Amino acid sequence: MRRTVFTDDHEQFRATVREFLGREVVPVFPEWEKAGAPPRDFYRRLGALGIVGIQVPEEYGGAGQQSFRFNAVLTEEVARAKVGLGALRVHMDLVLPYLLRYADAEQRKRWLPGVASGDVMTAIAMTEPGTGSDLAGIRTGAVRNGDHYVLDGAKTFITGGRNADLVLVVARTSPPVAEDRRAGLSILAVESASPGFSVGRTLEKIGLKAQDTVELAFAGVRVPAENLLGEEGRAFEYLTHNLPQERLTIAIAAQAAAAAAVESTVEYVTGRTAFGKPVSSFQNTRFVLAECAAEVEAGQTLADRALEEHDAGRLTPADAAKVKLFCTELQARVVDKCLQLHGGYGYILEYPIARMYADARVSRIYGGTSEIMKTIIARSLGL
Amino acid sequence: MTGDEFDEVLAAVREFVRAEVVPREDEIDRTDEIPADLRDKAARMGLFGYALPPEYGGLGCTMAQDVRLAIELGYTTPAFRSLFGTNNGIAGQVLVAHGTEEQRRAYLPRMASGELVASFALSEAEAGSDPGGLRTRARRDGDGYVLTGTKRFITNAPLADLFVVFARTDPRATGTRGISVFAVDAARPGVAVGPRDHKMGQAGAWTADVAFTGVQVPADALVGEQAQAGYVTAMRSLAHGRLIIAAMCVGVAARLIDESV
User: What is each CA distance from A184 to A65, A99, A103, A127, A175, in whole angstroms?
Assistant: First the structure.
């Protein structure tokens, strides 16, 4: 069905991105997968093209777009090209909103120009070895000492941590209180060049091979007090505020990946023959792909509506949870069915569907698991 | 094998799998290879031929016993069973059920001891779910045959000493007709194994293309005395293999529950 969320400006941007990805990313993507991340300079190149700073205000060198629609277009095109741009989505869709909303004037001046140009790459460090879905259990601590904090602790599952210059670290600045376990958490912007900051193991994932996920350790890292983002003790509220956008971007990526899987499977079954006729002529193939196409259409409509609601500032946590749950579970079903239609070739990594399958698995986990999404939705039902 | 004998074998396999193979799964995954000492121990335990008849050096497990072993073997990486799976299963069973006495004597004892690895070469690039679409041909040439064609996703091909190859011997036949089976030594001129397939998982279990380019084989390489019965042979062997895959999955499921708990 015709989509109504995008204007000509978005479609022009889409054409530019599509052409760029086809020319500069698709041919070298296997090398990025081997290396585990895109080269550092690639982000500067994207910065120079104005892509990284699309939502950064113009005074800091960005394009000043308030809308999330351009980000959505970029995410869709990346999925369509069956590539990944490393930690770019974390940088643009997850970290930037914190800087835009909570950074003070001086911090904006310090960080935003580099963030827009790709010279300052960012990451966000929430999860710890002992905390996943339960952020209140964070143990990394920051103790105020005159004009700085002393940060100690460890984080894991940090996307883009290997190349990040600035990491937003969620740390405990005061002990939890009995009536509110979530109190006492703060966000510190930590420069990775600081003494005591170290990057640990790169975790080996089953998919998303061109995106590094690492462990970080902080041993007495001195963080200037002016690197506190927003107010002390309010991190949980800030995190909660930004989660809907994080979940929306995951949903959009999942949705676009499902659409790409259907597209490439249609192509595969048309070219492949078995029992003397094209695989596409078997009723099973047609039924399965018809189901997938109908699902993708439904998911698209939901994701598009959510995008509109988000731009209008109305996307609630429960809305975002519904969209993430639906689109990521949809991706899993669709990609699995599409792989099955590839037969043995679906298991061989040179076929894109094999990689899409491995990449899809984490959608239902990161940014909040499907079970956490259901918990949020159930709460909104008064349960 | 009698019940008591089998119970001992089963217990030994269970112990070996859990105490010696499971702890080395990371290594197998990392190196994409079953370590030589595990392979040797498996051979000494008779695992390369547990489903082959005792008169040819196997342990002579019944189908039911074979299934119970597969459940135990399913508890660890599938690459482990894959190493001797083709000897006991799809390739070995073709020779057991259809080979001539000479062929059985020539191959089965060495397969049972682990000295020789046999591969089952049926699938092709354009013949997977539909093996009747295979294009590999065996042309009659004097007393023997000349094989030409390429097989795909052939398990254990990079290790194989012997290929059980399905090829069309009747050039006029199509579909499931006119297919014969040959036992082809991997060392024969014209047999070429391609690079290992880069799969999503199952590290340590190797599959590859095998090309047969004008490979000359003697008349007695024809498995069984009757040509053209290959399709039925393949289907019987695959039916056996499917039961084993199901059993392996039971073992995997048990492992997953243990790991998750």
Answer: 33, 20, 19, 16, 6
Nearest-angstrom CA–CA distance, B226 and B170: 13
Which residues of chain A are within 8 Å of residue B129 when distances are taken between CB atoms? 274-275, 343
Taking the CA of residue B194 and the nearest CA in chain A, the distance in Å comes to 15
pLDDT at B135: 95
- Cα separation, B218 vs B143, in Å, equals 7
Per residue in B185-238, pLDDT (tens digit) is: 999 999 999 999 999 999 999 999 999 999 999 999 999 877 778 888 888 888
The answer to whether the Cβ–Cβ distance between B133 and A344 falls below 8 Å is no
Distance from the Cα of residue B81 to its chain's centroid? 10
End-to-end CA distance of chain A: 35
Looking at the complex, report in whole angstroms how far the Cα of residue B104 sits from the nearest Cα belonging to chain A.
31
Question: Smallest Cβ distance to A344: which of B132, B153, B201?
Answer: B153
Q: What is the largest CA-CA distance in chain B?
A: 64
Predicted structure pTM score:
0.87
d(C-alpha B118, C-alpha B240), whole Å: 16
**Which tokens belong to A259?**
């659409």
Helix (H) or strand (E) segment spanning residue B121? strand B118-121
Q: Residue A232: count other Cβ atoms within 10 Å of its Cβ.
A: 18
Rounded distance between C-alpha atoms, residue A141 and residue A170, angstroms? 9
In this complex, do B130 and A358 lie within 8 Å of one another by their Cβ atoms?
no
Residue A70 confidence (pLDDT): 97
Residues of A forming the active site: 246
Contact list, B198 vs chain A (CB under 8 Å): 348-350
ipTM of the complex: 0.77
Asked if B129 lies within 8 A of A348 by C-beta distance, the reply is no
Q: Does A312 touch chain B (CB under 8 A)?
A: no
